[in-house]
Amino acid sequence: MELFRIRKDIPFMRHALVLNAISTLTFLAAVFFLFSKGLNLSVEFTGGTVVEVAYEQPADLTAVRQVVESLGYAEVPVQNFGTSRDVLLRLPVREGSTSGEQSQVLIAALKVQNPAVELRRTEFVGPQVGRELVENGLKALAMVIVGIMIYLAFRFEWKYAVAAIIANLHDVVIILGFFAFFQWEFSLAVLAAVLAVLGYSVNESVVIFDRIRESFRRHRKKTTEQIIDNAITATISRTIITHGSTEIMVLSMLLFGGPTLHYFALALTIGILFGIYSSVFVAAAIAMWLGIKREDLIKSGPKKEGDPDDPNAGAMV
Amino acid sequence: MNRYPLWKYLIIAVALVVGGLYAMPNLFGESPAVQVSAARASVRIDVTTVTRVEQALAAASLKPSLIQLDGNSVKARFESTDDQIKARDAMERALNPDATSPGHVVALNLLPRTPAWLASLNASPMYLGLDLRGGVHFLLQVDMPAALQRRADVLTGDLRTALREKNIRHSGVSRSGQTIDIRARDAQTADAARTLIQDQFADLDIKETVEGTDYRLSATLKPEAAQLVQENALKQNMVTLSNRINELGVAEPVIQQQGADRIVVQLPGVQDTAKAKDILGRTATLEVRLVDETTEGQAAERGGAPVPFGSERYPERDGQAVIVKRDVLLTGENLTDAQAGFDDTQQPAVHLTLDAKGARIFRDVTRENIGKRMAIILFEKGRGEVVTAPVIRSEIGGGRVQISGAMTTMEASDTALLLRAGSLAAPMEIIEERTIGPSLGAENIAKGFNSVIWGFAVIVVFMCVYYALFGVFSSLALAFNLVLLVAVLSMLQATLTLPGIAAMALALGMAIDSNVLINERVREELRRGASPQVAINTGYDTAWGTILDSNITSLIAGVALLIFGSGPVRGFAVVHCIGIVTSMFSSVFFSRGLVNFWYGRKKKLKTVSIGTVWRPDGTPAPAKAE
Q: Which of A100, A118, A258 comes nearest B437 by C-beta?
């Protein structure tokens, strides 16, 4: 079986300008939603209490909402979680009542309304923890960006590093844009997924860059644009298949993993899809605009010429 | 060219065997068990405990499948939860005849059903996180400024006493925040005070300022000393917490330090958060009260008469009743330290240190009640016990109290321990709390497991169809990766959480990337017309550089998560990082081994089973594939 029967190099770069314009628009839209709507941060970041309860019958959300309102909470989200029998409540931090007192009062009140209620889980996070998490999340993001850039600059050349990071940050911002637009809950697990995606889609760009380097060596007559087209064409089937396989796993989490893994898997799905797109169209195109040349990568004389597998090729910039 | 030397095959064989062995314990599941551990420091768990457990079970005609002494607990395993609960009751009756002061904690637990021969290899299953087994998680923040203030309080008192002893006429010693201010009217006094502090208080740094005619010495704790105070505060709080948690009868509580000032408490299986929090959060377990020495009180103490109004009866440790007044003079909060030692006449004694507020109250109380008795009562498990009820000989100021008379060295250190155990070195606040019901835990396991299995199955089917025999090799490598990952996690005794399972699924999804890269490369070489052996060799070799690059970038992200992540993210990051490393081994080294083993010997290899190798021009290839 062979899915990809490509006769000639596909002229990906011919449309680079149009596609980059589309990318820029998507990116700007994502930034716009991030600022206008903001992320729906989970309780881990904001501090507060989450209570998940289960009923034997499909839950009566109005009744639950009334109970919550009777406790003096206004506008507390009461929603089904996974199934119609599970209910998730998010209580804001309340001055004076530290730790999980709030959840106990709530459970007691819910028991009065319907004794069949079962407490599934509660989660209380103090506000100081939330601040720290935001801080650490940003630090982690910074470390990933800097680490990957240094590695790529060392392994290839700075232009590639810049291109890869821009392309993949564009993915990250778009994932965040989705979360802002749909007001999906942004939890710690989603943050982990976003950072994992960053590492993962950079590796996609790396594969293409690797090919670009090889094509530069192999085809001495071609222009940079042709080289890039050739490299992408050569890797496209691999790109689709590996991302497909990873996506199978992620879909399996989305389908079987239940509500806890739902947004985690969703973030990965968006990340993987945009990862393909950005590596093919954004990273390579930016590298092209930045003016990558044969000489950037192959400087070190004839010894390297005959040895395309030398792991240090390109390290001497 | 596609042949591994023997030692490479040996490495693969060893990795297979070791990985298989250490991953295996996870297959056996868990069986219900009852665990006995000591509730008090004075109770020892040893072989005699095992015999007592055996006898108790025999008397109740229950047959455990295994009884073992494991460190400081005895574990008995049963076939059914029914037996487990009956056994718990039988053991509770046998080991704790006096229900009011239990010496043992008898708790229900789940024990891995690892066969003995595996256990003897130190192979044990992964530890399940709270989100998979249910339980309570607390993150407590120790109030370090308060601990430092308390220390400064103590030092202020000590300093005052020392200055008085040396007859240094200061014009005031006071504490503001964590600084101690000593005022003096002239330079001489200031100098004398400074020398004294330098000699006797090595923990303090001094700064001198002149304010008009007044000299002021500001003493602060040296950074090392402050750090020591904080470390000790954390340690004592952890000890106190574990003493308290013993009451809850939790089989395997986790009490760990996190960062410089935080303590994580995890109580698997506990559902009653209210009770758990109540016990963790208790601050005043120690009370100082006056003994009721009225005639009615004394009559009640001898027995016979009722306890007078306004008083209560508490037993001493030897069972002797003491009638004390209801008014609480001091609580454990004011007690900063208790140490066993000797008094001036070389008699065993307990030295107590009170904070400033406690010292003031104590001075007033002792001045007004010379010749009377006071009782120090420890409330443990909601039950008061008089630790000691000494007679007040004289007014005691300065916050340093000495209890002596009629006790052995052993008793002195016991009392000191009891007094210390009741108090927290610094107040704590719960800043994070999580409760997971047991049904949710079981569901999470099932969901995580299903995601991994279904994703795995679909990938395997696809790989086998698309890449034929090479797909089979890739699938075997993927399966081996899973085994290795589980084995490494089990060896490290890592805690598996739901995000960890998600990372496992993701690791598999990403690991297959390497094999796809390799297979595509091999196909490409074949397409170009390379002979099968050359194609395999070049394919693997050229793919390796790319695989390394892409895994390193993923690893950078993983390490960042590991460093900056906490809680669920860390669980994810650990599995993610280990998964990347094992995947490089399995999908490159191991799969190459399989390929070499299968094709390496065939010198005149004509075809390779790697699915259709399509050629744009449609001409038959020199080496036909499939």
A: A118
